[in-house]
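#struct-help
A.M.: can someone run this one for me? Single chain, 94 residues.
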Amino acid sequence: MPREAKKQYYVYILRCRGGSFYTGYTNDLERRIQEHNNGRGGRYTRGRYPVELVHSERYTTRKEAINRELEIKKFSRKTKRELIKGYDPTTGNK
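D.P.: on it. Structure tokens below:
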């Protein structure tokens, strides 16, 4: 079994100070949120913390997580809000 298959990967959306959204992926969600809140996360979130986790999805491969992250990053703000509320605009499912 490939080593990567044992890991879990997460795609997440954070609400930043000021109400903007940040989307990323990681294999350790708790650690990554702490990094964002300590000013050591992504460049965008530096200076926009504290951040709040508002959505996350779990994947079994890094490739799946990266592809989903890129898909979500292309969403409009309205579509991201729908996803956060539990409606997935890509599948039409709640």
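A.M.: thanks! Helices lie at 29-37, 62-73, 77-85.
D.P.: also worth noting: The chain has a mean pLDDT of 90.
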